[in-house]
Amino acid sequence: MTATRSLAEKLARPELINLTPYQSARRIGGQGEIWINANESPFNNSDIEQLNRYPECQPPALIDAYSRYAGVSSDSIVTSRGADEAIELLIRTFCIAGKDSIACFGPTYGMYAISAQTCNVAVNALALTDDYQLPTDLVQQVADAKLVFICNPNNPTGTIIDLDSIETVVNQLPNALVVIDEAYIEFCPEYSAAQLVEQYDNVVVLRTLSKAFALAGARCGFMLANPDIVNLVMRVIAPYPVPKPVADLATAALSEQGIALMRQQVATLIEQGKLLSQALSNAGAQVLPANGNFVLAKFDDIAAVKQQLIDAGIVARSYGDARLADWIRFSFANDKQTQTLINVFQ
Ligand SMILES: Cc1ncc(COP(=O)(O)O)c(C=O)c1O
Fold first, then answer.
1. Would you say the CB of residue 84 lies under 6 angstroms from ligand 1?
2. What pTM was computed for the model?
3. Contact 227/254 with Cβ under 8 angstroms?
4. pLDDT over 90 for what percent of the chain?
5. Are residue 189 and residue 266 in the same domain, yes or no?
6. Is residue 2 part of a domain?
7. Spatial separation of the C-alpha atoms in residues 81 and 270, rounded to whole Å
8. For ligand 1, is residue 69 a contact (CB within 6 Å)?
9. What is the pLDDT of the chain when averaged over all its residues?
10. Domain end residue (candidates: 254, 273, 293)
């Protein structure tokens, strides 16, 4: 009798099902005082403990800290080099090159498409509606995409899709993985879909410490998904994706104190963002509702605005995408920087 296969196993690249992951020295482990099984140096030349040793593949202290923070059990979490690596891991775990496809709803974060293309996986680049929601005929449009990426809040629009709409899509697509990218969720935590991970076998949530936690330089992200998905992704992930100093920094950022600091900074940034959005609106720009740490604004005379910003030494984000030709995205900044920016528009 064959055991029932999980959805993750049905969707995964078939060659992964019987693959034994690389047996790193760390994974094999052992007992004793003298560790000479990984061709490491016995000399630690750093103040960081054990820097001469390979790190854990999934540092338990970091995973536990994220589990407490996100309210998701430890066996439903993978940590990676930023959310970007998690995007690529999903594509490499589930999509057959030259055959499978992903879907995403634009304008949105560019790495879903780029990552897929670098793996020779087709991209079904769909459009959000005029009010930046998911299309009502999403199921037909998505067709047989293995992974359906929904960025929420969406980068670069800053707009949000409510949890009921996300859950509807999850129910409508029982044979695909619905990947909700919550890189900016700390700025609107009430919209998080993290709890769906334990209810549905086709939900994946992506998170990062790069935004609200102010650790973009550390490269630390998380994938939340049911243990069957985690198990398959762990066959594809590099043996040591998270450097030891990063794991230490990230674990500290996820301490009670670290989370309190993050929340305080998020509140400050949201206030600065409101001031900026108001100033842009007063200056005649069309300003989208900002649910992340940035605001997207449309200008009548975009060339003049770009020149004003250059003259003031302000580097904001403009786009090559024709749909966004008249738009500029401004990340929220500190008090002084925000005032400088507001002065440009007064
Ligand atoms: C929506 C979205 N997802 C993922 C990322 C990548 O995050 P990380 O820095 O964790 O790789 C970004 C970065 O800008 C983003 O905007």
1. yes
2. 0.97
3. no
4. 95
5. no
6. no
7. 27
8. no
9. 97
10. 254
Q: For residues 247 and 265, state if they share a domain.
A: no
Written as six digits, the tokens of 29 are 């482990």
Tell me the CA–centroid distance for residue 48 and ligand 1, in Å.
28
Put the strands of the sheet holding 294-298 in their side by side order.
286-287, 294-298, 327-331, 317-318
Number of other CB atoms surrounding residue 127 within 10 Å: 13
**DSSP, res 51:** T
pLDDT > 90? residue 304: yes
Distance 85 CA to ligand 1 centre (A): 10
Q: Which domain holds residue 301?
A: 258-345
| DSSP of 68-97 | HHHT--GGGEEEESHHHHHHHHHHHHH--T
pLDDT in tens, 123-155: 999 999 999 999 999 999 999 999 999 999 999
Could you give the CA distance from residue 264 to residue 234 in angstroms, rounded to a whole number? 34
pLDDT computed for residue 2 by the predictor: 57
- Cα dihedral: 93, 99, 105, 108 (round 10): 60
Say which DSSP state 191 is in. G
